[in-house]
Specification:
single chain, mainly alpha, two-stranded antiparallel sheet, about 5% strand, rod-shaped
Amino acid sequence: MKKDIEIICGSCSKENTVKLSNELKCKHCEDKITGKKYIRKPWILIPTTIVVLSGVAGGVYIDEKFETDRYPMSIEHSLIENCISSYEKPLDRSNIRKKKEVCICALEDTISDVSYSEYKDSKSLFIRVFGNKAKGCI
């Protein structure tokens, strides 16, 4: 078992590696080390604290940016279903598949331009942008 300990002297703030015994002294200033409280390398806490706080702040930012204003899945599904079934005449399977691809493409492009908050405030804005995006996806 190792009988050494690393401590920082309370008098001169220098690091010491000392062998455990009853009469411990700082090798720099010769002050007695026994009977006092010491901090063990406190600068290790600073980077750890910074990393933890950065992670929390980054997580909150990402959550707010990407999750808070996302369209609910039920709305996305309804928009695609309405887009696909917007023809008055029945479509065969291959045309339905093509229409579905166009509708999904248009929705993806529209979502990047019109946030869910904007969609709730102005459905006419959404419809106008969606129509333009759909033309680009054909």
